[in-house]
Amino acid sequence: MGRMIRCCLQSALKLVNSVAGFVGVGLILYSLWMIRVWYRQTHAFPTADSWFIYASLGLGVSFCLIAFSGHIAAETANGHCLSCYMVLVFLLVILEAAITADVILNRDWEEDFPEDKTGRFNGLQNFIRSNFELCKWIGLVIVVAQAMSLFVAMILRALGPYYGTCYDSDDEYLPARLPLLRNQVPHTQYIGDPSVQHRK
């Protein structure tokens, strides 16, 4: 029963952790698209002033790394891996909460960010304003997935290490077959041993 619960928790952690992987891949693809558009317009790669492109790329890579570490932590159920994963997710949630609080509470929040010469930052703002309901639900799904991953990781860590497997293997039934094999060994020796047959 305990093994079944652990396997279900590991599968749940992999499932909610995959949301971070999809978000990371999406951000990386979006960043590469922005770089391609910028290169086609200027015939040069974005400079350091194009902070929004590199920030999106870095955030996407961070999401992918967190998803990768979460998959390893879910597969191994190791306490140290789960602790590192929880710290990474917690720091990401704190960063998201800080940015969200700044946008909600500060009317001049746009001044906190440097000027983006690519114009993609303003384009993203206009897209969010025009599709606010969709973006709100996407953000809610991401936050809920991160909260669920923290919760499931804490439960797995509290359960402690487990050195078995989450599937039935034929090796589990090997000890039950060994006595039968051992009982047959003397009988085989009795038949094939000429000295025993001679004494008989």
From TrEMBL:
Protein species of origin: Musa troglodytarum (fe'i banana)
Keyword Secreted attributed: no
Spans through the membrane: 12-39, 51-73, 85-105, 137-156
Annotated localization: Membrane
Name under which the protein is recorded: Tetraspanin-19
Topology class, membrane: Multi-pass membrane protein
Predominant subcellular localization, coarse grouping: membrane
GO cellular component, one term: membrane
